[in-house]
Specification:
The protein is built from ten helices and eight strands. The model is unreliable at 1-7 and 273-281 (pLDDT under 50). Strands 3-2-4-7-1-8 form a six-stranded mixed sheet, sandwiched between helices. Strands 5-6 form a two-stranded antiparallel sheet. Helix content is 35%, strand content 15%. The chain is globular, with a radius of gyration of 20 Å. The chain has helices at residues 2-8, 28-46, 63-66, 72-79, 96-109, 129-137, 152-167, 175-185, 201-205, 265-268; strands spanning 12-19, 55-59, 86-90, 115-123, 209-211, 214-215, 224-232, 242-243. It is of the alpha/beta class.
């Protein structure tokens, strides 16, 4: 049976990709225009027409709260002259972009779609900071966490505390994760902190403490950005990268119901469709 299913699997290639520069000062209209430009660039790189895009899958978490815009996939598809493509808006909190990519992959695997444009978009600046904090906390279990003052920062601090206690490490020993990220961003053209000089041990340790075990340089920045990839079954050529499998898993949204905040066994036990590849999200 496994061999039969493997034979029926469709090849999914990435035939176009484009990333917008992450910014803080651009307006929402400018961010949308840049996103549409990246969508058009993907389609052009893929060598197909707009009328050949069968679906637009958009990963987005905050537009309904911050921009009061539901149906964000439809919104972007109309701006990009993709009105005949089926629109799907995917909200998986911070994993929305990855979830959108998996949905796009599965749409092609279903046999009902040949070319799928996958987009990730968030616009978080130019809004009241309290509104942003509340909107982000909406991805928690609101009744027991968000409504009682928990934020994404405090919840991540809770997970970090569990990790440091279980494995006997100090939060400062994990500073290299942030330092590596900032130093990579320093050399990447589209990164928010491009050309900012990176991050040193000294700068990290002097960072403002924002929560128990967490300092400012260990947290993500409030910013705006978008990226697009064009997936295809028919148009993929030998030189295009392929997605050989995709899988995801979940756990209790309420952290208090998780027996061990550091346990990722559910994710580790989830195989990709390829049968021999695993992903940890």
């Amino acid at each position: 049976m496994a061999q039969t299913m493997q034979a029926m699997r469709r090849s999914v290639g990435i035939i176009g990709s484009s990333v917008a520069r992450v910014q803080r000062k651009n307006t929402f209209a400018e961010a949308v225009a840049e996103c549409v430009k990246r969508m058009d660039s993907c389609i052009a790189e893929g060598g197909i027409g707009h009328d050949q895009v069968d679906a637009v899958v958009v990963g987005n978490m905050l537009a309904p709260q911050l921009q009061r815009q539901q149906q964000f996939a439809s919104f972007l598809a109309c701006r990009a002259n993709l009105t005949s493509a089926a629109p799907f808006t995917i909200d998986a909190a911070c994993g929305s972009g990855g979830a959108a990519l998996q949905i796009g992959y599965n749409l092609i695997q279903s046999g009902g779609f040949k070319n799928v444009l996958v987009v990730g978009f968030e616009y978080m600046t130019h809004e009241d900071k309290k509104l942003i904090t509340t909107a982000l906390a909406g991805a928690s279990h609101w009744e027991t966490e968000g409504a009682k003052g928990s934020t994404f920062v405090s919840l991540n601090g809770q997970v970090l505390s569990a990790y440091t206690e279980k494995y006997g490490v100090l939060p400062d020993e994990l500073r290299h994760i942030s330092i590596n990220g900032h130093n990579n961003a320093n050399t990447v053209d589209h990164a928010l902190f491009h050309g900012k000089g990176g991050l040193t041990d000294e700068k990290f340790r002097q960072s403002l403490e924002i929560n128990h075990n967490l300092v400012l340089y260990a947290a993500s920045s409030i910013c705006n950005g978008s990226a697009s990839v064009l997936l295809s079954n028919d148009e993929a050529k030998s030189h295009h990268p392929r997605i050989i499998g995709s899988a995801s898993a979940g756990d209790y949204i309420d952290l208090s119901k998780r027996s061990d905040l550091t346990d990722v066994s559910t994710l580790c036990a989830t195989p990709f469709a390829s049968g021999d590849v695993f992903a940890h999200f």
